[in-house]
Specification:
Elements: E1 2-7, E2 14-17, H1 23-26, E3 35-40, E4 47-52, E5 56-61, E6 71-76, E7 91-96, E8 107-111, E9 116-119, E10 128-130, H2 131-146, H3 151-167, H4 170-173, E11 183-185, E12 195-196, H5 212-216, E13 225-233, E14 236-243, E15 247-253, E16 261-262, E17 268-271, E18 277-285, E19 312-319, E20 333-336, E21 343-348, E22 351-356, H6 361-367, E23 377-383, E24 397-402, E25 408-413, E26 419-424, H7 458-461, H8 474-478, H9 484-514, H10 516-569, H11 581-617, H12 635-679
Parallel strand pairs: 6-18
Antiparallel strand pairs: 1-2, 3-4, 4-5, 5-6, 7-8, 8-9, 10-11, 12-16, 13-14, 14-15, 15-19, 17-18, 20-21, 21-22, 22-23, 24-25, 25-26
Helix pairs in contact: 2-3, 11-12
Pfam families: Nup88 (PF10168)
InterPro entries: Nucleoporin_Nup88, NUP88/NUP82
Keywords: Coiled coil, mRNA transport, Nuclear pore complex, Nucleus, Protein transport, Translocation, Transport
Length: about 675
Amino acid sequence: MHLYGRTSTKDNTIICRTISIGSKIYFDNNNFIRASQVSWHPYSDTHLGVLSSDSVFRLFDLSSGLEQPEQEYYLQPVQPGKCCSAASTCPVAFSFGGEHLWDRFSVFILFSDGSIYILCPVVPFGSIYRWEAIGEIYNDAQAFGLKSSNSRAVSNSSLAIAWLETTFPELSHQEMEGCNFPALKAHPYAPFDASLTLQGPLRKVCHGEEEEDSGVRGAVCEGHAVGFLYNSISKDSVLVTAWSSGQLQIDALADEIQPVWNLDNRPRISVDSHDHIIGLAMICESNPEEFSIVKFDQPLDHTVWLGHPPPLLRLAVVDLALPRKVDYGSLLSLFADPLIPERIYCVHGGGIDSIVLHFLPFTSQINGKDESMGVPSVHPVLNTCLEESSSPSPLWGFVALADSFGYSWIVAVTLSQECIVLEMKSWNVLLPLHVDVGKKQIGSEEIPEVDTPDIISKELLSIPKVDFVPQASPNLRSMTADSIEGRSTLHRYFKLFHENYVEYAHKVFFELKHHSAQLKRIIDDQHSRLHEAQQRLMNVEEKQPKLDDRVNHAVQVHRFLEERLLRLRNLPGPHKKSLSRAERQFKTELENLQDLELEALRSSIKALNTRLKRYAQSPQGSASIMPTRKAHVPDSQVSHLRSLVEKLSLVNTDNSKKVKLVESALRSQESGKRYDMHLQP
C-alpha cells in the first residue's frame, strides 16, 4: 500500500493505491498456497520476505518485479524417502538476523514441532551493509578458517571468503586498513555448483556426557510452535519461540553462525541479456551427518568452520498462565522493544505482556552480572479480558516505537477500531526485583506507624508544669492580706499565674480558632467513615441469611452428589482399567493427528496437485527458474522413483488407517457422552 494518495471529496477520505505481490502464487483460485509470515528485510528498503505453506521461502524485490520473486529457497528439512511427521515439515514463522557477524546474512526458520533451522548466507541484491561489519567477518574467516589445521575448516572458510569477495568486490580491490568506504552494496551472486544447506535442527548445548540425550530431545513445551523472534542483544543472539499453550521458550546461540553450502545440489540461476544474475532458486536440504553434540569443554579447533549448526543455550521457559480452554495458537505474536533490546512484548488473545531478560550468557559475563539473577520478569501491560469468564478479545495490530527523546511507546488497535498509545518506562526496567526474605512482612503482628499532621502543637498539648501554690508553712498562715508581706506574696503568685496559665489559655484559644475549619473537616470525615462502616455492617447482616441458605443448599447438593457418585461407582463402566503407558502414547498421537497432521497433509497434497497441474499446463522450454530434470532418465533413477512411490503409497495407507482410528475414537467418545447423559436423573 502506497500511503501517499489523493483525498476524496466524499466523506473526506484518503484513497491509497494498493498492489498485489506474487498474485499468481498466492492469489490463484486453483492454488492452495497460504502465506505464513511476511516481513521486510532489515538491510533493504525494497525487499520483502514471504514464508508460505508449501515450505518455500521467497524474497521479492518490489523495485524490479512484483510477480516473480528474486530468490526462492525450497526447504527440505528431511531427506526424501524417510518417514516423518507432518509437524516437522510445516514451517510456521521466520526471522531475519541482526547486527552480529554472519547473523546479518542469516534467516531463522521455525517449524511446527519447535525445530529451528538456519539459511546462511541470504543477501538481497543491492542491499547496503556497513564496511566495518563486512571487514570484521572477512578478517575472522581468514584468521580462524584459512589458518586452521583442519582441512574441512579450510575448505568451508575458502568458500565463504570467495563468496564475500564476489558479493562485495571492494574487499579484493583495496586494502582493509586504507579503505574509506562508509558502506558496501551487495552485488548479485550465487555459486553455480552449490546450494545452501538447511542448517539444523539446532540442538541444546551439553555440559557433560550425561546430558547427551537431553541435547537431542525435542522441546519441553506443550502444544505446537506458533511464533518466533530473533533479537540481537549486545554480544548475544536470543531466540524466542512461542507455543500454542501460552509458553515462551527463550534460548541463546552458544556459538557463531557460519555459512554452509551443499556441493551436490546445483541451483537454478536466471540471467538477463548482459549475463547479470536477476534471480535464483535452490533446494535447501538438511544434512543429518553434520549433527554433532557440542559441549562446553571442546577445544576451538573442534567447532569453528566445520559446518556444524550452532547449539542453543536454554535461558528460561516462561509460562504466561493463559486460560487452557482457549487455543491461542493463532493469537500469539512476539515483538522486540526498539529502545531496550532486553524487553520483549508478547501479544496474545488476553492482551499484552512484557518479558524482561535480566541475564545473558556473554553480555552478563562481560558486565560482571551474577547468574543467580537470570530469571526473567513478566509484567502485564494491557488486559483485554475484563472478566475471567469472558472470551478473549485479540488486538488487530501492534507496533513498538522509539522516539528521538529516548522514550519507548507501544501502539495497539482493538477490535472496536480504537487506537491505544502507551508510554513504557525504561529507566528502571532492567533492575531485577530484590526480595528481602529476612524482613518481617506487614501483618497483624506489626503495623507500621503513620505520621499524622500536627493540628495543635505538642507544647500546647502538654499543660504547664509550674507549681505556683507554695507549701503550707507556719509563717504563711500567720500572714494577713493587708500586711506588706502578704501583699508581696499575693502579687508574686498572681504574676506566676498570668505568665503561665493565662498566656497558655490565650495560645489554646488562638490555636483552636485557627484550626477550627480543619478540625471540622476531620470530624466530618470521621463521621462519614463511621456511617459507611455502619452501612457495610447492615449489608453484611442482610446478606448473612442468604449466605446461610446458600451454604445449606451447597451441603445438600454435596450430599446428593455423593449419593450419585456411589450409584455411578456400582455401574460396570467405571470399573474399567486405566490406560497403560502405550495406550496413553497412542491417545496422544491421535490427538496430535486430529489437531495438526490431517490439516497439514491435506494442504500438502493440495499444494502438490496444484504444482503438478501448473507444470503439466506450462509449455516445454518455458523460462522458469524452478529446477528441471533431463528428458532421458537412467534406469537406476526410475527404479528409485518407483521405490519412492511405493513408500508414498505405504505412508498414505498408514495415514488412512490413522484417520479411521481417529474417527472411531471420536465416535466412541460421542457414544460415551450420550451414555453419561442418559444416566443423569
